Amino acid sequence: MSGFKMLKNDEKVVFGLRELYAGLGYSQYKMNKFEEYDLYVKNKDFLISENVITFTDTNGKLMALKPDVTLSIIKNSKDEVGCVSKVYYNENVYRVSDRTHAFRELMQVGLECIGDLDDYCLCEVISLAAKSLEYVSPDYILDISHLGIISYIIDALGVTGSDRDSIIHCIGEKNLHDLSAICEDLAVDSNMSELFKQVVSLYGTVDSILPALEQIAADYPDMTAASQFIKLCRAFDAFGVGDRLHIDFSVVNDIHYYNGLVFKGFINGVPDSVLSGGQYDKLMKKMGRRSGAIGFAVYLDTLERMTDNSDRYDVDTLLLYDGTADLDTVSRAVGELTASGKSVTAQRRIPEKLRCREVLILKDGEVTTLENNA
C-alpha cells in the first residue's frame, strides 16, 4: 500500500482505470509505438493535432510515432456479425501539447467497444466514462449530446458546405446570435430555426431536460434520434450515473466522423475536458468497416493541472543517518516506519528538492524528529 501512495497522480489513475475496465470484461489492447504514416494522412481530420513525428523505415516506408490509438484499433479490428469486441488501452501517444506547443509523449487511457452494438453497450460505455471521471475526482460532470438530433435539424434546414460547418461551429460555441444570423441570411424555415435555437440552448441534468426532449420528440415523430436519446437517458440511473450526467448539445465533436452519442467529461479544478468520446460509425465506414463503435479517452496530461496537496510529497519520511550507524539499526528503523504504512527514504543527507512530510534523525540507535522541511 505504501508503494501505491508514492505513485504520481496519473499513475494511480492508470492502475485504477485498468481495474475498472477489466472488471467488465474489457481486455487490454497492446500496440507498437509506430504505424505507417499513411494511416494518419488518410484520417488527419480525426486527429487532435495534424502534426505527426515521422521517420523512414529500413524498407523505405514512411512511418510515424502514433499520435492516436483509436485508428490503430480500428485498423486491426474485424467485422463479426452479432459479436462485440471490448478493449481498453493505456498507451503513450506522441503529439503537440496544447500547453507547451511542442511535441510530448503523453499517456492516454481509454476503451473502445466495436461490433454489433445495442443500447446496453452504449449505456455501459457512458457509465464507464462517468465512473472513470469519478475515479479521478468525485467532483465531476459528464456532458452528453446526440449528433443524430443535430444532424436531423441541419438536414431539414437544407444547409451544406461551409454554411453547415459555420452552423456546427456556432453550436459548439453556443453562439445563438451568429446562429440566428446565418439562418436569416439563408432564409431557412423559421420554425426549424427556432427549434434549432431551442435545442442548442438546452443544458442541465437529465431529469430537468427530459421533458423538453419528450415534447420535441412528440412534435417531430420522425426524429428517431430524439426517441433513442430519451430511452438511453432514462436508463442511465440504472447504471448508477444519471445524477452526474448533463445534457449539452454544444458537445458536437467532429460530425464528419462521429454520430449518435458524443460526450465530454470535466472535473473541478481543471479548465479543459479530461475525457472525450462518442460513437464513430462514420469513421468505421470510412476505414472499410461495417461495425458500429463507441469509445472514449482520458487525457492524463490534463490532470497535471489538478492541485492535490496529498500528492505534493515525494515520500512520507526522510530518515537521516550518519556514518556511525550500523546496517541492522538503519534497516530496523526503516522496517518499523514502512510497517506503519509510511513511505521512507533513508539518506545520509537531505537531497536537493526532495519533498517529504517529515524528517527523522537516526542517531545512537534512537529516532528523533526534525522540523518538517515541506
Low-confidence stretches: 1-7
Q: What form results from the Cα inertia axes?
A: elongated
Domains, number: 2
Which class do the helix and strand fractions yield?
Answer: alpha+beta
Cα Rg: 26 Å
Strand order of the largest sheet: 1-5-6-12-11-10-7-9-8
* Percent strand: 25-35%
CATH class of the largest domain: Alpha Beta
Beta strand count: 16
The rounded distance between the terminal residues' Cα atoms is 22 Å
Assembly classification: single chain
Helical stretch count?
A: 13
CATH homologous group name of the largest domain: Bira Bifunctional Protein, Domain 2
| CATH topology category name of the largest domain | BirA Bifunctional Protein, domain 2
Give the ordered list of helices and strands: HHEEHEEHEEHEHHHHEHHEEEHEEHEEE
- Average pLDDT, all residues: 86
By CATH, the architecture of the largest domain is named 2-Layer Sandwich
What is the helix fraction of residues, given as a range? Answer: 25-40%
